[in-house]
Amino acid sequence: MSKTHRPCGVYMAEGGIVAAALAPHPPHLVYAENPEQNEPTSEGGWEQLRWGYERLRNSLKDVEYDVIVILSPHWQTYVGTHFLGVEHFKSLSVDPIFPNLFRFHYDMNVDVELAKAIHDMAKEDGMSVKMMENPDFRVDYGTIVSCHMVRPQWDKPVVAISSNRSRHYYSVEVMQEMMMQLGESTRKAIEASGKRALVIASNSLSHRHFTTETAVPEDMSKEHITSHAMHLWDMRMIEMMRSGKAREVLDMMPEFVEQSIAEADGGALTWMLSALEVPETPAILHGYGTIIGTGNAIMEWKCGEGAGESGD
Amino acid sequence: MRSWNGNVVKGQVRAVTESGVIKSIVVPAHPHPYLVPEQNEGWGRLRAAFDSAREEIENSDADLLIIYSTLWPSIIGHQIQADPNPEWIFVDHDFHDVGSIPYSFDIDSKFAEAWDEANKKRGLQSRTVAYHGFPIDGGSVVALKLLNPDNRIPAVICSSNIYSNRSETTVLAKACLDALKEQGRKAVAVVVMSLSNRMFTEPIDASDDKIHSLKDDEWNNKILEFLGDGRLEDVAQLSRNIHSQIRVQKVVSFKPMWWLSGMNGQHNNFTGRVLAYEALHGAGGGVVILDPSGDGVGDKEYDEDDVEFYQGDRSVLDSVMAETIAEEEVQIESEESSEDIETSLLMALAKEQQSEHGPELWEPTEGDGQHSTEKAPKPVGPYPHARKVGDLLYLSGVGPRQADSNDIPGGPIKDEEGETLDYDIEAQTKACIENVKTILETSGSSLDNVLDVTSFLIDMDRDFKGYNKVYGEYFAEIGATRTTLAVRALPTPIAVELKVIAKA
Ligand SMILES: [Fe+2]
Q: What fold is seen in the domain A11-306?
């Protein structure tokens, strides 16, 4: 890969975004990993994706970061964008859609200081924002799955940002405008904090599910993309990201969301690409696979020195 | 008058004697009436309405509360809560600052299992869920806390599948009725839903709450007027319009009225009462009670295909069943075709394709405005060839079969053993249009008067060209609008069928 690509983010010794990832959250991945925190057990499954996550984790080994900043489509808010504002959560997360697969005992620290800083910055930038300060709140499973797959040690504090459903109220275009702003506010606040952040967009790509489940959910003989069109869309988006065409990804977003029912409608991908200042850095594809028919890619953007050199 | 499920005869309704739904209640989903009714007078009125509904339940002889919540989405068919004693603390994703709701409910797990079984018998994908810590949705939590605070009556909660259509949702209700009957239960059916669901996207002062827009308010009032008149099935039939008019376009569309009407036998004979209608952060929240009554506004004014068994796209994972219809197989030529067409059509077709040798033939139905002719092929179900409404003439779908012999010009698409045969699409299309022409002319109209044509082909790739050529010979000058769909199958071994609307 050419070294002339503009690296994403602004690397600062004292702080900033040091890496970013597209890290989808189907609970099937945690289920298939059999971590001790999850109640159900499996015989495996979805290895292409789980090993993709393993490659991502290896790739992030040398990246030092203080905090994970994540936006999950499964904390859906209609009245502005919300931020977790309680220092510590310890509870049980049961997926309301796949409770047979995901009943996860989580123990998570929140970087409330940074969350508040991003909240304040976004507010200053004109966005509708709110801190979530109710200790009884249950953290959404999207946040938990992505965080677990990226960092199973659970030793980094998290900033969790809700998914504002502006796409449902207005359009993908309005969603993008808002998420571009939120991404910028996020980046500025991270840089001002002096902390090194790993930024995660927790979403799938094409998002048409099968509506049946096999007796053994991890039966991979039944796992495939729901339709050819969905596959084409996924490959198109991945190809653009792995060739550093984030701008094109954003331009294509309305069509992509419309035609592949993409989960990116929740804003996570746009927000992350904006936080990275719409990178020309090629993203590294660590894995692609389908989960109950939906398309999922694990991709990484390295920032700062060395960015652009490790593209595949 | 067609009898629905054996329940409804024109102008009267079954009296619920042994088992079934004795009362239906619509309630809003937001936590405000429970947690902070004092902050806004409207929220207080909603709370009072909840309380009245609770008293009515307490004074009835109901022994089961069935909740269908639009706030519990599912993907794998429908899920039914079966944990006998779910306990947790609910906090709203948006309104977490109005407080937490600890809950502990009594769930009738035996009924949940029976409903699940009944679902499966009717072809639905279904499962019960009973897991400690399962996050019961906020709408169900609020409904149970307010309508059944002491767990006086056991309850059951069902999810709302994000992909389910009217057929599936209706069958879900029918399966629930099967279970009620089997257990001899008397139930109150509760749907948790917003009317218009657009909320303000900025925080507001509680005292400033109002319906988001005048248009939403007008539609809400219209819905409530219908429900107040007991016209439940009419509202159900308007569900798609309601969704497109006043619902934020989420994946989960406006389907609770399909379920509720299904639970009540799909009619309009109720005594309806709107106890409250107020704004909830901009959304419309109503508390409505519907009691079955001997007289109402009468039977529904129009209907869609009824369906007893679900045969939709539930088998996409199973290679043996992969032959059944998947939504993706419908190719739509015209963008104006709506998913509504898909849904009702697919379900009907899926059902009919079960028969290898084609369905039995029927005499056309007779009645006001209905026209039929000996010169057109016999129907394959209880319908007329045409029906006149005002200045318009609606034709039932017509294929190429011949009136007298039942032969198919151009040959059938398969033989009696189901072996595929070569057929002539041009000859079939021509015969099809000739049948349309005959029906129109014997009804006093003509081909020139055709306004709109919907064509169904079983093989778009193979047949579109030939079909289009013949179509052009007849219709090029007429200028009717047209939509062409590819479908999995038609009820008889034919490759093309037309559905026509013409000036009378
Ligand atoms: Fe998701």
A: Protocatechuate 4,5-dioxygenase; Chain B (3.40.830)
Q: Which CATH class is domain B21-317?
A: alpha beta
Which of A267-281, B293-307, B408-422, B433-447 is least confident?
B293-307
B334-503 folds as 60s Ribosomal Protein L30; Chain: A; (3.30.1330)
Alpha carbon distances (Å) from B301 to A78, A98, B76, B236: 37, 40, 34, 12
- A115-127 pLDDT, tens digit each: 999 999 999 999 9
Q: Which helix (H) or strand (E) holds B109?
A: helix B109-121
Q: Kindly determine whether residue B100 and residue A134, on different chains, have CB atoms separated by under 8 Å.
A: yes
Round to whole Å and give the CA distance between A19 and B340.
46
Interface of A with B (CB under 8 A): 75-80, 82, 92-94, 96-100, 103, 128, 130, 132-134, 136-138, 140, 162, 165-166, 168-169, 209-214, 222, 226-227, 261, 292-293
Is A212 within 8 Å of B91 when comparing Cβ atoms? Answer: no
**ipTM entry:** 0.91
Which of the residue ranges A169-183, A222-236, B246-260 would you say has the lowest mean pLDDT?
B246-260
Give pLDDT tens digits for A242-261: 999 999 999 999 999 989 88
Cβ atoms of residues B376 and B403 within 8 Å? yes
Q: Where are the domains of chain B?
A: 21-317, 334-503
pTM score: 0.74
Q: Hey, is B70 helix, strand or coil? A: strand
Mutate which: A94, A211, A228, A232, vs B, most B CBs within 10 A: A211
Q: Cβ of B38: how many Cβ atoms within 10 Å?
A: 10
* 8 Å CB contact of A226 and B74: no
